[in-house]
Amino acid sequence: MRRARLVGAAVCLLLFVLLTVLVAVRDGAPLPGDRATHTWALDHRPPVALAVARAVTATGTGALPYLLAVGAGLLAGRDARQRLCAAAGALAVLALGQAVRYGVMTAVARPRPALADWATHASGHSFPSGHSTTAALTAGLLVWGVTTRSRSTSAHLAAALILLWGAAVGLSRVYLGVHWLTDVLGGWLFAAVWLTLGTLVAAPHVPAEIRHEEPVSGR
């Protein structure tokens, strides 16, 4: 399992580096698929859909992701000490990931789509998408917390719904016209790499009985 995660992280890192270089050498110009998805979004914006997209996108920024990261850690721990350590670790993964992502964004300095196309507020440069990265990191941490607490069918269903939320936040940025599709893909790739690094660093400090806890019948 560890080897598979490392291979997956290496692939995501390679793809992220290639995408970042491609964006940089083209001076931020839209890549294949960017204009098509952007145009589609502009042509399919009924008021109800815009309201839903704005509500979804609002969950990918501000204090909420940090509160959810703390909640993920609290779910993962069995006693007070473990919960405190896991919550602090999850918060660190999210905060440090944001700092590194911001550094990449500043270095690449990709322009956003035209301001006239925006259907919500946005700030800063475009690549990688901050909302997409934040939501993906938060979703990954929540999935870790939920599946650490339980391996039941309900836990896996909850994990799937959490991942759908993370994806929806990223896609809402394209729909609202403030990001290119490749900005969102860059955020997802970065988050995948960062989460893998975080779990590999944290795994030795999480007791085995926490990581693989199974319900015991008759208790």
UniProtKB/TrEMBL annotation:
The organism's place on the tree of life at top rank = Bacteria
List the transmembrane segments.
Answer: 48-77, 84-109, 158-178, 184-203
Q: Name one Pfam family in it.
A: PAP2
- Pinpoint the Phosphatidic acid phosphatase type 2/haloperoxidase domain residues: 82-199
| Keyword check for Transmembrane helix | yes
Q: Which InterPro entries match?
A: PAP2/HPO, PAP2/HPO_sf
Please provide the record's keywords in A-Z order: Membrane, Transmembrane, Transmembrane helix
Q: Which PANTHER family match?
A: AT30094P, SPHINGOSINE-1-PHOSPHATE PHOSPHOHYDROLASE
This chain belongs to the protein called Phosphatase PAP2 family protein
